[in-house]
Amino acid sequence: MSAETETKENSTGGFGEFLEKTFKLSENKTTVKTEVLAGITSFMTMAYIIVVNPGILSNEYGANQDFNAILFSTVLISAVMTIVMGLMSNNPYAVAPGMGLNAYISFALVGGGTITWEEMMGAIIIAGALLTIMSLTPISSGVLKAIPKSLRFGLAAGIGLFLVFIGLQDAGVVINNDATLVGMNNFGLTFALFLFGLIFTAVLMLKKVNGAFLIGIVTTAILGVIFSIGGWGTNVIDENFQSIAITEIAALPDTGTFFKFDLGVILKPALIIPIFTLAFTDLFDSVSTFLGVSEVGGLLDENGDPKNFKRTLVADSLTTFVSGFFGTSDATTYIESAAGVEEGGRTGLTAVVTGLCFLPFMFLSPLLAAVPLYATAPVLVLLGVLMFKPLANIDWTNLEDAIPAFLSMVMIPFTYSITNGIVFGVISFVLIKIVLGKIKEINAWLWLTFIFSVGALIAPIFL
């Protein structure tokens, strides 16, 4: 599409001109239609958080909070702060309560008796305030300078592998195996539907069909419904969806967890490490996501760094800060945003659309069961393929760069943590430089990041 055509499409009417001026669509070589499709696609791949996060935080062996109250706070933080992210950063990133951190909060801290729910929300507010202050200072650009290019490429591929692993688990293809940790499930209808979605979506991508991811998700889901209605596999549709009654489809929001926080947590020395862990994990997860997704999507400035990085980090930090007030585990930027980026999303309009998609589910959350995980899983797998592209930029004959990049890549899926990828990458990079007598190549910011990485590695010992 030519720049002239883009400008014409983006400037249709007063509202179109507003969108063009706000998000600089033509400058970013995109259109309203593309951004809307991308926003919906991002939402479809991360919508699971609406029911998964309340499930974790309401577990009776964990935080034991009210499911409906957590669901409402999950939807609200995801909707409001994703829109804020789009408007502040003009980047297509979506935010929601972070997986992993929600389990840490629910089972290790609140459920483990280390901290009360109110103190936990206070800790999240304090961690968010620290992150916001850091993002407004030179520390934000310093963190970016601290990550060598080779590690950025490794992180991008590692996030891709992570997405693949998540997708294969969602589809029930990869399952737990007591002998080998993981194994492949027996072939069945759900497995077959996943393979159909994978090949069908891949063909659409090869043919460069606009909205390939979204079409693939919807088509696979509809096919599953047809099989279930025909009696060929009742397990294909979520059982909860099958039993939904009209009266259960809609419900008024529950604000039971709103403003239930205790800032007195800052006076308890024993909680310094949990606060540090929250802040550090959120920071590194977010920076890794920005680096990986921007590298693959070409969302880079003239220096080759993620565009609008500081504003993006500020928006992400504010998201953590606000999470404590809304009464949910801290929200962060989601790697599933890569789905929208690959669909063509290039500006904050994608994020705004994603945020708006969350809003109806404050009242209609049961309907999400209509989109089964095997329908979204193929998109995550295909994203993994696309996120391997940056590996071509690594000089694999130069082991000084190759080894840290490789460790960054594999430690993310193998430990189920983006933070561990950057921790192992930074530590190995610095130690290799020290052993080779190249300490002068380690700048002050990288030294600081190295110290934080070592801290993150040993912090669990004291928890």
UniProtKB/TrEMBL annotation:
<dbReference type="InterPro" id="IPR026033">
    <property type="entry name" value="Azg-like_bact_archaea"/>
</dbReference>
<feature type="transmembrane region" description="Helical">
    <location>
        <begin position="213"/>
        <end position="233"/>
    </location>
</feature>
<feature type="transmembrane region" description="Helical">
    <location>
        <begin position="69"/>
        <end position="87"/>
    </location>
</feature>
<keyword id="KW-0472">Membrane</keyword>
<feature type="transmembrane region" description="Helical">
    <location>
        <begin position="408"/>
        <end position="432"/>
    </location>
</feature>
<keyword id="KW-1133">Transmembrane helix</keyword>
<keyword id="KW-1003">Cell membrane</keyword>
<feature type="transmembrane region" description="Helical">
    <location>
        <begin position="99"/>
        <end position="117"/>
    </location>
</feature>
<feature type="transmembrane region" description="Helical">
    <location>
        <begin position="265"/>
        <end position="284"/>
    </location>
</feature>
<dbReference type="Pfam" id="PF00860">
    <property type="entry name" value="Xan_ur_permease"/>
</dbReference>
<keyword id="KW-0813">Transport</keyword>
<comment type="similarity">
    <text>Belongs to the nucleobase:cation symporter-2 (NCS2) (TC 2.A.40) family. Azg-like subfamily.</text>
</comment>
<feature type="transmembrane region" description="Helical">
    <location>
        <begin position="367"/>
        <end position="388"/>
    </location>
</feature>
<protein>
    <recommendedName>
        <fullName>NCS2 family permease</fullName>
    </recommendedName>
</protein>
<dbReference type="InterPro" id="IPR045018">
    <property type="entry name" value="Azg-like"/>
</dbReference>
<feature type="transmembrane region" description="Helical">
    <location>
        <begin position="123"/>
        <end position="144"/>
    </location>
</feature>
<feature type="transmembrane region" description="Helical">
    <location>
        <begin position="187"/>
        <end position="206"/>
    </location>
</feature>
<keyword id="KW-0812">Transmembrane</keyword>
<feature type="transmembrane region" description="Helical">
    <location>
        <begin position="151"/>
        <end position="175"/>
    </location>
</feature>
<dbReference type="InterPro" id="IPR006043">
    <property type="entry name" value="NCS2"/>
</dbReference>
<feature type="transmembrane region" description="Helical">
    <location>
        <begin position="444"/>
        <end position="462"/>
    </location>
</feature>
<feature type="transmembrane region" description="Helical">
    <location>
        <begin position="36"/>
        <end position="57"/>
    </location>
</feature>
